[in-house]
Every structure is written in structure tokens, then in C-alpha cells.
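Forum > Structural Biology > Help requests

Title: Can anyone predict the 3D structure of Ketose-bisphosphate aldolase?

Hi all, first post here. I have the sequence for Ketose-bisphosphate aldolase but no way to get a structure on my laptop. I'd be grateful if someone could post the C-alpha cells.
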Amino acid sequence: MNNHTKPRNVITLKKALEFAEAGRFAIGSFSPRYTPMIAAVLSAGQEANSPIIVQISHKELIRYGITPAEFGDEFYDQVGKLNITVPVVLHLDHTKELATIAEAIDAGFTSVMIDASEKPFDSNVKDSKEVVAYAHAKGVSVEAELGMIGTTDFVETDKDEELYTDPREAEEFVRLTGVDALAVSCGTAHGVYNVKLPKIDYARLSAIRALTPVHLVLHGGSGVPAEMMQQAFRLPGGGVSKVNIATDLELSLLSALGREERMSNLECLSLSPERLAIGREAVKRTVIGKMEGFVCSAGEAGRFVL
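Reply #1:
Sure, ran it for you. C-alpha cells for Ketose-bisphosphate aldolase below:
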């Protein structure tokens, strides 16, 4: 078990998204991918006076060589060192194994995502329901996925298959599982849009939202135009409340360092303080740009009452 005493501003995803939906904006969920960049994401939220979600997926933990405990320790250390006062969520993104979810919850994560979207509907329900029972008993929020969100870089998911979320299935899925948030497939993809252009099926989003009260999540936010996002979270009756951004952060880091190839977390940790400072500033500016462009109005977010 972790020894973290959770600061009052480290909250669950459910609490954060309730506020976002009421304000008709979405909160950015940013994956720093390297532990030294957690500070950059947190600093961006503080500077923008905006609630913010710091996340990492199971595949990212493996690819970059990080444990949930290492990620959680750095998150809580930086919340304290940087005197972060805005509401923050520590979220485990795309994960298929209960063991990793349990490890993350022990490490102080306040939100987890079970992704059984490649399985048949009944199996997805069974796995998601199991995680909901486990996580809710520990005061942790749960996100699940219905439909399949495509990918262009295979960092977060394994396949480039895309299967749009069926609104009626979404209604049934939420009722049976009790999840707090639902990632839906409606046209975006993980990674960089090299050929395929991003699009959002607003009619599908509206139909899903009309049939279920659950908070909706849009994965694959990197490269999606701001005006597209704004329309998605301002839909009548409530639209998207959480937008995931990962690839754009890593691209800005690598560009600032004059690199093309990604690093391991160990390589990032071994950079000189000067190089780390350059990288952090680039990531921070990217996050602030995303929040100002489409994710969250600092004026609205500043009214968040804990």
C-alpha cells in the first residue's frame, strides 16, 4: 500500500466530471509519458487555474519502463513541491488487467480505466462490473470503453480497428456496470493523424448522452481542431466532459530536445537539469495551449469548489 496522504485537491474523476458537465466544458486528461514531465502537466493546470487530469496507460507504463508506484510517487511529490492547489485527478488509462488496476489504486490513483472493448458485449460488462465493484469499494472512479477507438501509433491500444459506439448498447452497458465515465468511439483516433482526418459524429454523441447520464470521454484528442472539440462538449443536454491528450505532449518534448525517437523513462531521468527544464517548459506550454484552445475555460474552472 502507498503511504500518500491525499491532499484535499486530489479528487476522483467522478467529482471532476460532475463539475465539468455542469459548466459545459471538458477537462483535459494529459499523459506526460515520462515521470519528469508530470511536473510540467501539473504546473500547466496551476498556471491556467484549471482542474486537470494526469494519466498514463498500461501500455505506456510498459513501453516507457515505469511502475504505477513510481508514477504515483512522482505525482504526489510534485503536487506538494509545486504547491498545486487546483483540483487534480490521477488516472490510469487503457488497462485490461485487474492486477495492474489494483497496483495503481494502491499507488494512490483516484481513477482507473478498464478497457475490455475488444471483447463481446457480455464479457466487457462482466470485466467492467468487476472493476467497478473493486474500485468503488476503495473510493476510486472507473472509466470503461464501449465501441473501439482506432489508433495510429499503437502506444495506447493494440489495433487500428474502429467500431462506433451504439447508443442503445451504451444505455444498457452503463446500467449493468455502474461505471462513472464512458469512453465512446465517434470518429477520433489515438496518435497523430497522418492520413485520416479527425471527425466527430455529434449526432451519435447526442444520442448516447440522451440515453445515459454517465460522463462521456473522448480519446484521441491530439490533432483535433479546437472548434470540433468545443462543439463536442457544448452539446445540448451535456456532451463530452473529458478529453485525452498524449501524443502531442511527447512530440513537443522531443521537438524541444531536438530528438525524433522516443526515450525510455530512464533516459529522460538521466537528462541534464538544463535539458529537463527545456523539455518541461515545452510540455507545459503545449498543455496550456490545449486548455485555452478547447478543453477548459480558466474562468469557469476557477469556480470549482472542493
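Residues 24 and 234 are 6 Å apart (CA to CA). The chain has one domain: 13-303.
Shout if anything looks off.
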